[in-house]
Amino acid sequence: MADFKMLAIDLGASSGRGIVGRFDGKKLSLEENHRFDNDPVIAAGTFYWDILRIFFEIKNSIRKCALSSDKDISSIGIDTWGVDFGLLDRDGKLMGNPVHYRDARTMDFENWAFNKLTKEQIFEKTGIAHVNFNSIFQLMSSLRTNPNAFDGADKLLFIPDLLNYFLTGQAKTEYTVASTGGLLDVKNRNWAMDMIAELGVPTNIFTEIAQPGTVLGKLLPQISEDTGIYDANVVHVAAHDTASAVVSVPAKGEDFIYISSGTWSLMGMELNEPNPSIEAMNCGFTNEGGTNGKIRFLRNIMGLWLEQESKRQWAREGEKTTYDQLSDMAMASEAHKCFINPDDPSFMAPGNLPKRVAEFCERTGQYVPQTKGEIIRCIFESLALKYRWTVENMDAMMGKYTPFINIVGGGTKEAPLCQFTADACKRPVYAGPTEATSIGNLLVQLMAAGKVSNLDEARQVVRDSFEIKCYEPKDADKWDAAYERFLKLL
Fold first, then answer.
1. pLDDT in tens, 321-361
2. Rounded CA gap, 3 and 240, in Å?
3. In this structure, which of 136, 191, 193, 296 has its CB flanked by the most CB atoms within 10 Å?
4. What CA–CA distance (Å, rounded) separates 318 from 199?
5. pTM of this prediction?
6. How far apart are the first and last CA of the chain?
7. Which are the catalytic amino acids?
8. What is the pLDDT of residues 255-279, one digit of tens each?
9. Could you tell me which residues are beta bridge partners of residue 301?
10. Which long-range contacts (CB under 8 A, 24 or more apart) does 146-149 make?
11. Of residues 2, 1, 31, 11, the one with CA closest to residue 19
12. 244-278 core/surface letters (b: 16 or more CB in 10 A; e: else)
């Protein structure tokens, strides 16, 4: 029997790629067919996404399928980051390039975002942690500078939904990506129209919500002529990249914690119902939409950005190293000499991270790391200890002990961090798969095609198809002592 073939478009903040997935009925295999840069543009003082260039590259990926043995792909799915959006006018035309979530227009949101409704009221309604770039604050910011900003707007579409619209002509909003922006009622899982209106945002621009696994439609005739693909369905996958990554967590049952590990660490658990409590808000947790009716209850933690930016700084100074070399240096350094709070604001911006790590340690009266190995070991151990803090808070809020942790994404390549996570959290860690987001995208396409029935079956496909490595905890007493020191830094 021929393999079932699909195309996953996985779009990140700096690059994108097309991944062809082939499913033989039991195992899933991946092959990258196209990779491209995603370069934002500053124009007239505003930070934009170059959405038409992105769309051009997506068509290139589809076209490469048509020009290869993958011309028989059955479906296409797109996942991206959350919160950002484009506006269509009444003729269905794009009104302007979507603004980048790092644009400065919302940096001071605390000064004006909560004048009509309090932080607590907005969190109780949406369940979403208050971050400056949330979609609701972007919309409110537009109205602050231009009260007529939405006069000509007919529809708001998030980035994956906008790209799907360009492919199919169908304007709908996928649930998981909509859930990230602070615009949905977390309990009824639809637009929080009463809150949106109260905050002064027009309610007429929001479209029908579609669940992951919904078939959107075929490619428009002109897109088919352009790319050479005529019969593929465009599918609403779990369009927020973390939602796709969580689909690929190879856990059995419901009792697990996941970390989608990369530049950021998204750490959480799946719930059947949201937890929009004040306690959750105060601990920085958020309730985002998942697949098959799940809620992704999670916390966003500074992740491997700390190592990545340190490596870039050393390269700027003329000292180039590989990640493997840095890991070896870290493991050769003495354990538990100093720690940082990974989420300290001083680590957010690009620049000299090694210097900031040293300054944090000096400011908090600790040993000041001197070498690359000591700095990376400090970063890894501090991340593992922040994971423990997060795990313990989740367990306390849920009233149960979660027995193991799954790490998916690029961070699974960092074996020391995986081991430290097991040690600090005192529970086994299962690491893999690495290509979590693309795999989750493809698994939802399989659900849409009826090849996989639910999350349990999808995760069995992951276990059958990809290597998962287990890290057992050790040195509990030493990590307990380290944790007591770490808590004083929060």
1. 999 999 999 999 999 999 999 999 899 878 899 999 999 99
2. 27
3. 296
4. 50
5. 0.93
6. 56
7. 241
8. 899 999 988 899 999 999 999 999 9
9. 265
10. none
11. 31
12. bbbbbbbbeeeebbbbbbbbbbbbbbbeeebbbee
